[in-house]
Structure prediction request, 254 residues.
Amino acid sequence: MSTSTEFADVPMPRSRSAQAWWNLVVHTCCRTSSASILILLLMYWLYSSWTILILLVLAILAALYQYQDTFLYFPDQPESSRVFVQTPNTIGLPYENIYIKTKDGVKINAVFIKQPSNRIATAPTVLFLHGNAGNVGHRLINAKALHSFCGCNIFLLEWRGFGKSDGMASEYGMKMDAEGGIEFLLSREDIDRRRIIVYGRSLGGGIAVHLAARKLYQDKIFALILENTFTSIPEMAHTLFPLSKIPSAFLLPQ
Prediction:
């Protein structure tokens, strides 16, 4: 089976929500938190001021906000996930290997598994948003079932920081990854763009809901499928760590 690789700089929507700008401001401020903690610790040791103590606590909370992604996402599990990504031709599936540049300039990996040439233009196309850990190669058995038994084209998007994708995983970044994926599909002329199905599994389910809820895409998504997903990350944190209710409500994003 032949493969091809292309770099797609897809057109992205210009409008950004107030929440997106707020997230950008928060993440920019948090990047300076580590240095701030050291400076404030020294100042508190020298002056023992209540004002400095309050600023120190705020800096520590900002640091926790910044580094919380390391507790949420597991791109290195299994151990070889960032080194080896199985390709669809190993299980007999024709595919394109595609790299997409998101609107914040991150290059992400994707695999497009196509129906035969006489059916690709009429088959539904599934935008597959995978769960936590691993890479797109670990989801090929699911893609093969959708391809063989449901007659769909499958677009497997690999989150930033996972597999061959650049960047680091974050909620805000994954939203941009998903938007980049659907914009890429909407730019293709060889598929039926009226029959794009967004499929979100586990972690990908939350991002799939975000994508379907955006007014920009509501009339462009034919169907939404969720598998084994969750209502919110804070609620998952409360379930896994019952004592974390107050901190996670403050720290964790939606």
